[in-house]
Model the fold of this input.
Amino acid sequence: MKMILFYLFFIPCIPLAAKSMDIHQVRENYPLAVDNKKICKTTLNALIHMPQSAIVMVYLGAYQAMLAKHLFNPIEKLNSFSKGKKNIEKAVTMAPNSLEVRFIRLSIQANSPRILNYRSAIEVDKNYVIKGFSSIENNHLKTLVQELSKSSTLFTPDEKKQLK
Done:
């Protein structure tokens, strides 16, 4: 009887935990998901269940693209990255003036393998992020931008100074 109660009440709650993640947690998990498959998959699952918006769509795409790094099968890797790319571009279409959307696309393009040929908007997005950096109110996003500029060869020393 106890097992039946366990399955009836506890097991259905497990997916709800992933679904109840908010966008703040998605943002916090973003840099962690690069190296942590569990965080990447859990956050991706939560994003799938969130109401659709440009911000949700860009993070959905970013997590799908990052998931490719954690997969073994080359076909699955390519499919996951392709879905991610499509969703990122959809988000940019939905909100072309969103600095956060542009930054997420920039971070994925900056870190994607050249062979995938997803680097066409790097300069445009980089310039957009640099110009809008001083208006960023979200400290976490500001820190992510600064970390990308420090770790990437895409930014010149002068551009890095503008992002301090």
